[in-house]
Amino acid sequence: MQPFFRQSLPLFRIRGINVxxxxxxxxxxxxxxxxxxxxxxxxxxxNIAEFLGxxxxxxxxxxxxxxxxxxxxxxxxxxxxxxxxxxxxxxAPPRAAAQLWGIAAGxxxxxxxxxxxxxxxxxxxxxxxxxxMPLDVPVLLSQLIFINKVILIFNxxxxxxxxxxxxxxxxxxxxxxxxxxxxxxxxxGLVGAAGxxxxxxxxxxxxxxxxxxxxxxxxxxxxxxxxRRPAPMPPDEPMV
Length: 240
Hints:
globular; 8 helices; 5-stranded mixed sheet; 5 strands; alpha+beta
């Protein structure tokens, strides 16, 4: 965690939680905006608004993890945004139920946004406000609705350390215990990361997807190693 933090910059602090941004985020923002293609907006200003909206959704997701972890008596003090989303560094109590709630709260934020964002778009049209706004506004809301759905679906995949993989691990914890559940979840994560990497290479040839597969694989391998050791479990388990 320390090298990652040394390469990130502080943004702000809310309710005792430090929000930081990794320097590579700015490179990713420049690349995405410079290669936006024809797009669906009338100007790059709306592309910037969509990009910032994406990371606002991610930040709310990570705050869901952090605040839920605190609710069950754990510690959560740092969130880092980077090109691949966000990471909440938390230390939840070593109980299956506490871990489950801390993890599930992130996707539940996206579930809530499935109602809020379409509701906001419907309100604009029903009230007639959409007719008095730039055409880009409803388009932006539609894009953010789609982005939120993608974030939710991807995060609940049962691949460790994605939320779906960690939820699966927490559920198995009730029957298998702390270490065996982590071993099984991380093994599934390794298989999933390998599958994602192969699919990305053969179908998309996407560096972004390949790097995500690498990240998932390395985190799963690290978790597998910890699960096999007799030493205490590591604190500050990241939630993505």
